[in-house]
């Protein structure tokens, strides 16, 4: 079952606030209500004290300017029961505060007897007294009612802010390159997340060790196989110098090409393993244009054998961070592909130039290009696309991609209309002299 920690915290805290507020509000309301009623009784007593020595007219000045409903009435009962039934029934009550019914509504009254034996009654409808008390009690809880939404907002902000480091951490992990297994930093993270980060770091360490083991295994296996394959090639070469029947010579040719393909596979596997190797913390600054010139010089003979015009379209001095062997491997693989897919009479143009803070290596050919559905897939190991040439391992572009990404660059392939494939590699520029 999945649930949101944020939602839980917010709902929990909000419920706590609302229930505490409701409880406190109810108690506060009751208390303020009773206080207001008590105050009104005190007022009745004070008026009674005044009326004890003075006979107040029934429409006394105490009511001047007061709402008709809120008026306090004063009624003289005389010194013996007389007058209306209401007046007579009041005579039966003792001195003090009472609630009686008059004109079909409840009244709060105070009965007093003067020293001369005459009695009077002061009263007010309970409805108006309750209304006044409710109003004043409501005003006491009003600040809380206004504060509750503000408190909720503050809680929501605090909860959001407290859980933000977790989301930030997830973002940092997602933004990492797939081969970046470096430790997560504890800096700027809350203490509660430290055990979690430490666990992730231990896991990353284990994955790193496992990948390193696999890479070493591939490299060692490829390396060990290189010697016997070289020996087989050498023996096959020696054999081809001897006199052989045509049938055996055909088989020898097949053997030689098999050995050549296997040797190429081993070289590519070694290059792939090397591209995954832990880099030196500070890679040397290498001149990409010089590397490109050297690789082109090596390929000139192959290009002219194939009848392909190989040359530079633009070459500018450009320094990048990375070992020369790695950069050479990138150019070799891309150039090898371009030449292999370009027909006789075609062209392969190379460009090395600076563009803003980047160094661009561009290789254009006049071959058939790559079907759009294969453009991304060909970067995966052993994928040779839907139009592979007769020879190849499918590892060249994976080697290119891994090296380029390790050097913080990027590589893209695009089909240029009416031309062929364009491979563009971009590296961060290193200012010469820095
Ligand atoms: N310039 C190109 N023009 C057309 N297709 C290409 C080009 N470069 C690569 N490809 C396609 O991409 C596939 C993968 O290329 P990649 O370099 O990874 O492997 P490969 O060339 O088959 O083998 P290897 O490079 O190991 O000898 C190729 O088999 C080919 O189908
Ligand atoms: Mg290739």
UniProtKB/TrEMBL annotation:
Domain (Histidine kinase): residue spans on this chain: 220-431
Organism: Bradyrhizobium lablabi
InterPro entries for the chain: HAMP_dom, HATPase_C_sf, HATPase_dom, His_kinase_dom, HisK_dim/P_dom, HisK_dim/P_sf, Sig_transdc_His_kin-like_C, TCS_sensor_his_kinase
Transmembrane segments: 141-160
Keyword Membrane among UniProt keywords: yes
EC number per UniProt: 2.7.13.3
Reaction(s) the record says it catalyses: ATP + protein L-histidine = ADP + protein N-phospho-L-histidine
Record carries keyword Protein transport: no
Membrane-protein topology: Multi-pass membrane protein
Signal peptide positions on this chain: none
Protein name stated in the entry: histidine kinase
EC top class named in words: transferase
Keywords for this protein: Kinase, Membrane, Phosphoprotein, Transferase, Transmembrane, Transmembrane helix, Two-component regulatory system
Gene3D superfamilies xrefs: 1.10.287.130, Histidine kinase-like ATPase, C-terminal domain
Recorded GO CC terms: plasma membrane
UniProt GO MF annotations: phosphorelay sensor kinase activity
Pfam families per record: HATPase_c, HisKA
Domain named HAMP: residues: 160-212
Predominant place of localization: membrane
Domain of life: Bacteria
Subcellular location: Membrane
């Amino acid at each position: 079952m999945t649930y949101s920690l944020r939602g839980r915290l917010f709902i929990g805290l909000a419920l706590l606030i609302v229930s505490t507020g409701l409880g406190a509000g109810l108690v506060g309301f009751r208390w303020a209500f009773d206080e207001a009623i008590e105050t009104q009784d005190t007022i009745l007593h004070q008026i009674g004290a005044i009326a004890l020595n003075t006979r107040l007219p029934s429409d006394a000045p105490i009511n001047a300017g007061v709402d008709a409903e809120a008026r306090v009435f004063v009624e003289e009962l005389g010194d013996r029961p007389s007058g209306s039934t209401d007046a007579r029934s009041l005579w039966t009550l003792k001195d003090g505060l009472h609630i009686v019914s008059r004109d079909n509504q409840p009244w709060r009254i105070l009965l007093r007897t003067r020293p001369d034996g005459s009695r009077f009654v002061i009263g007010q409808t309970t409805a108006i007294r309750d209304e006044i008390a409710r109003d004043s009690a409501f005003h006491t809880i009003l600040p809380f009612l206004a504060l509750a939404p503000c408190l909720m907002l503050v809680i929501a902000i605090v909860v959001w802010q407290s859980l933000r480091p977790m989301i930030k951490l997830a973002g940092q992990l997602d933004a990492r390159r797939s081969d970046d297994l470096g430790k997560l930093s504890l800096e700027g993270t809350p203490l509660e997340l430290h055990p979690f980060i430490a666990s992730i770091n231990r896991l990353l360490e284990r994955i790193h060790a496992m990948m390193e083991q696999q890479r070493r295994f591939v490299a060692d296996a490829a390396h060990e196989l290189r010697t016997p394959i070289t020996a087989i090639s050498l023996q096959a070469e020696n054999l081809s110098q001897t006199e052989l029947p045509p049938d055996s010579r055909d088989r020898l040719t097949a053997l030689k090409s098999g050995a050549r393909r296997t040797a190429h596979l081993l070289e590519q596997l070694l290059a792939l393993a090397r591209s995954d190797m832990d880099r030196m913390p500070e890679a040397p600054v290498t001149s990409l244009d010089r590397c490109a010139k050297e690789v082109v010089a090596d390929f000139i003979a192959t290009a002219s054998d194939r009848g392909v015009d190989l040359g530079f379209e633009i070459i500018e001095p450009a320094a990048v961070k990375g070992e020369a062997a790695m950069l050479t491997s990138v150019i070799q693989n891309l150039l090898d592909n371009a030449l292999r897919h370009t027909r006789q009479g075609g062209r392969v143009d190379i460009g090395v130039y600076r563009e803003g803070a980047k160094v661009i290596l561009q290789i254009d050919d006049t071959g058939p290009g790559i079907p759009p559905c294969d453009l991304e897939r060909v970067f995966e190991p052993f994928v040779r696309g839907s139009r592979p040439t007769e020879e190849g391992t499918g590892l060249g572009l994976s080697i290119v991609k891994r090296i380029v990404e390790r050097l913080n660059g990027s590589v893209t392939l695009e089909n240029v209309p009416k031309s062929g494939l364009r491979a563009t590699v971009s590296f961060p520029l290193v200012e010469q002299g820095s």
